[in-house]
Amino acid sequence: MHVPNQSASEGVSSGSASPKSSVDEYALPSILQKKGMNAIILGQMVGSLGGLAFSNGLLLLLLAKVGFGGASSLLILSLPSIIQPLLILPFAHFGKRNHRLMMIRGFSLSTFGFVLICTLGWSGWHGRSILLPVVVGIIAYSIGVSMSTASWYALLDPLVPKYMRGSFFGKLRLSWRFCGFIFGIISTFILSLGHGIYPLEIIFIVITIGMFYRVVLMRAIPSARESSTDLPRIIPAILHVIHIPGYAGFCCYVFLLTLVTENAVTLLPLIERYSTGYSDIAVVSMGCLLGIGAVLSFYVSGKLVDRIGTRPVFLMCHACFAILFIAVLCRGFLTIPNILWMGLQNFLYGVASAGVSVAVSTEMLALVPSSNKGLSTGLCTTLQLAGAGLSGLLSAVAIKLGILNEHWKIAGSMLTAYDTLIFGDAILVLLLVVTLGLVPSVLARNQKEETQH
């Protein structure tokens, strides 16, 4: 999909911008906004499959095929969330010179990372050398995602009208999640063709092709914000962002919620793989059910956020997380077949995580000022990823050091150390309900004020 270049008078910077372009920075023609948003949605549909490989069990299965255990896999899968918080703020600061270029370079580097991962089954890696393509590939992917994430919201801000951001983020996530669900179904069919590593390699090659096509699509998106060459020092700029009313508290809330929920995206496949003994196809099918829940939730959550604000959506997600975490522990003493019960919990996790994602994105853009959008959103994204990385790292360390009992019983049902971590998540997410006061729910407040006037 090609988005034609526009002149500076239409609000799109091309080289040197005229004075009018800075005044009409957000006054893009609706046709240009629609083309830009459509290109973004299509690009994410084909390019986000790489990120989904971390959550739907595909990368976990690939690591298991080449000999990695549960704790090692958990640590490796946590690498993106450990690396990205260290890099997003610097990239957001220096990416202000050209958000579009930073994003394209990031998508290109993350694609290269998956090219390395694709070599696992084809280039004779064996023994400890297998760590090289895995670790280097995931690190390259993580750095690339950091670059693209740092400029993502700053690029979207002028393209997406403020009144439809909840719906747009819902539609955006619904589209790529639906694409991921369809791809998950195709993946289960490919996995049924054989039991070696090669069916997985075919899947990862397709993922890499989709990521490359996203780079092509994103090159056609115009930069609606003038590239800046005058950069303040990064520390004063960060301090300025922290003093935005309500923003620091909201970022803390996002960090804490991610810390106690994000590890479940890896713990659920580990329980299915090592505790209940599900087959490769069953593990990927669970990931598909998670995707279905996310697809439905993205659509509904986008509508709810626009109508009632973010705080009620966060509250519903807290309840959903707590219910599903406790339900996972109950899988052994119910009359419902185990695989159906776990499928339902994966579905609910998709619902809750998607609702949080839409609410965080919408509230974040509503809170930050129009100036220095990249660094402002980068701070919240950094804390969100730091929470995810710390969540996975602490879980991996607890299992690796043997701090948790490998096996324990509840009502006669045998559970594992992975279930202990899930139980801890359930308690903490309930306790975090008291931190909802840190969510300003700016969107709902503004809508109420507009109604009164």
Detailed description of the structure:
The chain is built from 19 helices and two strands. With 453 residues, the chain is mostly helical. It has a single domain, classed as Growth Hormone, Chain: A (Up-down Bundle), CATH 1.20.1250.20. Strands 1-2 form a two-stranded antiparallel ribbon.
What descriptive keywords fit this protein?
disordered C terminus, disordered N terminus, Growth Hormone, Chain: A, single chain, 453 residues, two-stranded antiparallel sheet
> Whole-number average pLDDT?
79
Helix/strand order, N-terminal first: HHHHHHHHHHHHHHHHHEEHH
Any low-confidence stretches, pLDDT <50, length ≥5?
A: 1-29, 442-453
CATH fold-level name: Growth Hormone, Chain: A
End-to-end separation:
42 Å
CATH architecture grouping: Up-down Bundle
CATH class: Mainly Alpha
Given helix and strand content, the structural type is mainly alpha
Helix content: over 70%
DSSP helical segment count: 19
Placed side by side, the strands forming the largest sheet appear as: 1-2
DSSP E strands, number: 2
Number of spatially distinct domains = 1
Q: Tell me the overall shape.
A: globular
| Beta-strand proportion | under 5%
Return Rg in Å: 22 Å
Biggest sheet layout: 2 strands, antiparallel
Oligomer: single chain
